[in-house]
Each structure stands twice: as C-alpha cells, then as structure tokens.
Amino acid sequence: MDYSFWSTATHYYQLIETAFSYEHGYRLGVSIVIFLFFWLFRNKFTKYILYLLIKICNTKATANEYLITAFRCPLVNTIVALGTYLALRNIFPLTYDHLLDQLLRSFIVLFMAHGIHTLVKLYGNNVEELGNVLDINVDKILIPFFSKMIRFLILSLAFVTICSNWGYDINGFIAGLGLGGLAFALAAKDLLANIFSGMVIIADRPFSIGDWIKTSDLEGTIEDINFRSTKIRTFEHALVTVPNSNLINAPIINFTKREMRRITFNLGVTYDTPSHALKKCIEKIQYMLVQHPSIDNKTIFVKFDSFGESGLQIFMYFFTKTTIWEEYLNIKQDINFQILKILEEENVSIAFPRTSHYFETPLQIVNPAQSILTKE
C-alpha cells in the first residue's frame, strides 16, 4: 500500500514539474504571443488580403463591395483560426498535430464556403450587376433559381469535403443518399412535380420576375420563383403562393410581353347631330390620333358604327406605344380631352341614356287655374 501511494504521488509530482518547467512555460508564453498577434492584427491582415484580391480580380466598384461584404468575416475567422492553430501546435508539437491539422482544414473549408455562398447570394439578388460583370443579358427568373441551386451545391460540397477530411466514407454516404432519395421521391411526388414544373418554367420562360400576368384564378405581378412555388403579388397587395405544377398547367396571359396597349370604346353623340358635323368629328379624331406621338398609327379605326338606343355610335380602336400602366392612363386622358375639344368645336353633344314614352290617346294638358275656376 505504501509503495502504491508513493508511486502515484511521484507520478503526479513529475506531471506538475513538467507543466511548470521552464521549457513548457516558454512554449506557453510564445503560444499566447502568437495568438494575440493574429487576434490583434486580424483586421489588418484581412484588409491587405482583400486589397490583393481586388487588385487581382480588377473588378468594378460594386463587385469590389460584394467581395468585401462576402469575404471579410470569413477571412477574419480564418486568420483567428490560423493563429489558434499555430499557438496550439507550439504547445503540443507532436501529441495533437494530426487533430489540429484536421480542425484547421475543416474550418478553412467552412469559412471559404460561407464567403462564396454569400457572394453568390449577393449577385443572385442583383441581376443587373451580374449581367454587367459577365457582359451578357441575364434573365430575371433564371439567375435567382440557379443562385439557390449553386448555393446548395456549395454547402453540399463543403459538407462532403469536411466529412472526407475526417475519414468518413463518402461513397457509402452518397449511396445512402440514393436509396433515401428513392424513398423520398415515392413519398413526395407532389413536391417533385412542383420542382420539375419549376424547371419547365425556367426553360420555357412564359414569364419573368416583375411580369404582370393573369390566370383564370388570379392576376398580379411575379415576385419570386423557387423550386416549389411561384409568388404573385396581386393588385390588392396580397401575396399569393402558387404551386408550380398548378401554374404550369393553367393558361397564362402575360401582359408585360405585349409591345402595345389597346384602347377601344364607343362614343355616342346625339341624334340631332347633322351628318356633315358627324363626318367632320370623325375626320378630326382620326387625324388627331395619327398625329399623336404616343399612338401607334399603323392600326387606328374611327368609324360611324351604329345607331344606338340613345345616340349615334362612333367606334374607336387604336394602340398606345407604351405598356406602362401610368403612362397608358395619361395618354388615354390626353386623348379624351382632345376628343372633347373636337366635339366642342363642331357643336356636337355627347348622348346620354334617356327614355321616350308614347301614349295611344293624346293627353290633354289643362291649365290648373282654369280648372279651378271651372269647378267654382
């Protein structure tokens, strides 16, 4: 018993002596200095690395802002992780070197994946800037869709890389995903139908984000298209989420795709309008529309159409050169004022609904005063 006690005490004494030895204390001090150095100068290192990255990429101001926003935090974390790694390697030069190497590689992969993920998201949210960088015309519906897909692939690749770094069997994992995917496909066929319908929308492009569309059930502006559904903002400012499979099978009217907007209506004038005045009005309205800068002069019809119940009907049919709602209303208002001016110049009155009554026996109108005197 005495031998065992003294053996254990001697062992712990040697550990304490080693821990507080000069060499170990020196390593601990150097490690603290290394960590503090990387911690205190992490922002300086980050700015320098970003400066070199911008110089190498030679991008524009907006792209530089995106690079800084996306990689500032990951670079700071990477520098702190590197300082921690070097400090711990100095304390444990041989004992935990493999574990520390694995941790450092995993953190670097994770931080860089986060930076690339953020960069793709920023460009996905700004389609115009992406088009300027690539010098191509990009589609508003295509870019957000593929942005989400690329971000998912980035996270998946980072996960697989980290698992491989720690020695996990990736082949077995992928095979398990295949079997799980089959079971998932059988259990979620509606979800997959919506996803494939979303791909059809991407390929066929019946509409894009920002387009004004109309179906048999709703009408509004496209706000977002994702893997499962499409979000439509109605004119009552309600947000409607429609499954892609329902939308792809429905007839869709895309008002944004049209090049012009139609104006058509009947103008009724009174029956006492002389024929020459009616002809003059029609000619002046026709000329006014042909000369109007906002009206397409290829298709203009101003005709004496029919004899209506309340007046003579002038049929008008023409197109504006704009499809923007507010501009369309302003043009329509201007034309209405000019038509009123033409009618005033020709002394032609606008007809309004009225009813005429006919009696088989003519009514006798009696003077009320005379009727009273007769009775007296």
UniProtKB/TrEMBL annotation:
Gene3D superfamilies xref list: 1.10.287.1260, 2.30.30.60, 3.30.70.100
Pfam families per record: MS_channel_1st, MS_channel_2nd, MS_channel_3rd
Keywords attached to this entry: Cell membrane, Membrane, Transmembrane, Transmembrane helix
SUPFAM superfamilies: Mechanosensitive channel protein MscS (YggB), C-terminal domain, Mechanosensitive channel protein MscS (YggB), transmembrane region, Sm-like ribonucleoproteins
Subcellular location: Cell membrane
Gene Ontology cellular component annotations, sorted alphabetically: plasma membrane
Bilayer-spanning residue ranges: 24-41, 149-167, 173-192
Domain of life: Bacteria
InterPro entries on file: LSM_dom_sf, MS_channel_1st, MS_channel_C, MscS_beta-dom_sf, MscS_channel_2nd, MscS_channel_C_sf, MscS_channel_TM-2, YnaI-like
Domain Mechanosensitive ion channel MscS C-terminal positions: 263-350
GO terms classed as biological process: transmembrane transport
Bilayer topology: Multi-pass membrane protein
Domain Mechanosensitive ion channel MscS, chain residue ranges per copy: 190-257
Residue ranges constituting the Mechanosensitive ion channel transmembrane helices 2/3 domain according to the UniProt record: 148-189
Family that this chain belongs to: Belongs to the MscS (TC 1.A.23) family.
PANTHER family in the record: LOW CONDUCTANCE MECHANOSENSITIVE CHANNEL YNAI (PTHR43634:SF2), OW CONDUCTANCE MECHANOSENSITIVE CHANNEL (PTHR43634)
Name of the protein described by the UniProt record: MscS Mechanosensitive ion channel
UniProt organism field: Pelosinus fermentans JBW45
